[in-house]
Design goal:
This protein has about 280 residues and is of the alpha/beta class. The protein has 10 helices and 9 strands. Helix 6 packs across helix 7. The structure holds pantoate.
Length: about 280
């Protein structure tokens, strides 16, 4: 497995793969790899000749009060997991390699980034789309893999690729969950054992919403209220948002029909977790 640290050595690696007509699958990550990332890597492994994983804790997608400095890192373990999973190369640039000196160009998707996580994390998606664009330009993948736990991120990136005619297929991969339903996330690492037990409330609340809809409930407020109530039963939790929305526009719906996305962000102590489920009506 190649360890690529600079843009220029990565371009050389990419050129050699293209010369051999090998298709490239890219799995963009911020490291601290877990089962969710491994599921992206396995899917990429099945669908491409060459798999590149990028590991870069992208500073531009963190707000000033957010967890950039304490974001968990374990490069040694990440490399081991990637080797075991048959990854061909890891692109692991420094912040200076990605953002050297004056940086004045941003990629911003409108509307889709103003709701849900975008409403409470201003600038977050601008940082994501900008760095993903840079990764696409450096690695020129045929396909790129994103987890559906970050449903909004996948929708935003698909929109960007469509709007800017970027020649990459975006593959969205289902959320991987722990045995008790908690979606895998690097941020689960922050939770104390007591908070970890409480964190199961996110998926439980989504299941309550889903079950109500499947049982015939069509009133958005009733579904939302039941979800809120479940979360408020837990001490030291605070709801950032609970939304019932259209999965393609991310706009809240006032009628439950066709397909709806139940999405939420909840603070468990000092850790903000997100999760979602798609419900067929
Ligand atoms: O989902 C993530 O880990 C990040 O937002 C991404 C896509 C790697 C961009 O930094």
């Amino acid at each position: 497995m190649e360890l690529l640290k600079t843009v220029s050595e990565t371009r050389q690696f990419v050129a050699s793969q293209k010369e051999e007509k090998r298709s490239i699958g890219l799995v963009p990550t911020m490291g601290y790899l877990h089962q969710g990332h491994l599921s992206l890597i396995h899917t990429a492994r099945e669908q491409n000749d060459t798999v590149v994983v990028s590991i870069f804790v992208n500073p531009t997608q963190f707000g000033p009060q957010e967890d950039l400095d304490r974001y968990p890192r374990d490069l040694e373990k990440d490399c081991r997991l990637c080797t075991q999973a048959g990854v061909d190369a890891i692109f692991m640039p420094t912040a200076n390699e990605m953002y050297p000196g004056r940086f004045l160009t941003w990629v911003q998707v409108q509307e889709l980034t103003e709701v849900l996580c975008g409403a409470s994390r201003p600038g977050h998606f601008r940082g994501v789309t900008t760095v993903v664009n840079k990764l696409f330009n450096i690695i020129q993948p045929d396909r790129a893999y994103f987890g559906l736990k970050d449903f909004q991120q996948a929708v935003v990136i698909k929109q960007m690729v469509q709007d800017l005619n970027i020649p990459v297929e975006i593959v969205a991969v289902p959320t991987v969950r722990e045995a008790d339903g908690l979606a895998t996330s690097s941020r689960n690492e922050y939770l104390t054992p007591q908070e970890r037990a409480r964190a199961t409330v996110l998926y439980r609340s989504l299941q309550i919403g889903r079950q109500l809809i499947e049982a015939g409930e069509r009133n958005v407020h009733s579904v939302r209220e039941a979800m809120v109530k479940e979360i408020e039963r837990q001490p030291n939790t605070r709801i950032d948002y609970i939304a019932i929305c259209d999965p393609s526009t991310l706009v809240p719906v006032d009628q439950i029909k066709n397909q709806v996305l139940l999405a939420l962000a909840v603070w468990i102590g000092n850790t903000r977790l997100i999760d979602n489920v798609l419900v067929e009506v």
